[in-house]
Write a structure and sequence with these properties.
Number of helices: 2
Distance between the termini: 58 Å
Number of strands: 5
Structural class: alpha+beta
Order of helices and strands: HEEEEEH
Strand content: 25-35%
């Protein structure tokens, strides 16, 4: 499963270097700042976008138990990559807004 993530990422989303990792139990994972996303497969067989915040361990050491929140179902690894790209864009937008500080005179 992770091999497909690597090949898709290289072809379509070259700036997401954190996606080429797998967790200890084989989940595709990505770190975006303090957010870690994973493609988690439920016991009933559907996949969802798992999330964890402020985990500093290497991605390869994470397990499914580290992902306590989720952001809905995802169809496949391509959708996982798209959601990672979307989250990366949001983080980038927030960072650029933080840098723009208007001067307010009193």
């Amino acid at each position: 499963m992770i091999a497909a993530v690597k090949s898709n990422m290289a072809a379509s989303i070259p700036d997401l270097s954190g996606v080429d990792a797998a967790s200890a139990d084989g989940l595709p994972v990505a770190r975006i700042g303090d957010l870690v996303l994973a493609m988690v497969i439920s016991p009933s067989g559907f996949s969802y976008l798992g999330r964890a915040v402020a985990i500093r361990r290497p991605l390869a050491e994470l397990t499914r138990a580290d992902f306590i929140g989720h952001d809905g179902r995802i169809a496949d690894e391509a959708e996982f990559l798209a959601r990672v790209a979307e989250a990366t864009g949001h983080k980038r937008d927030l960072a650029s807004l933080d840098r723009v500080r208007p001067h307010v005179s009193e």
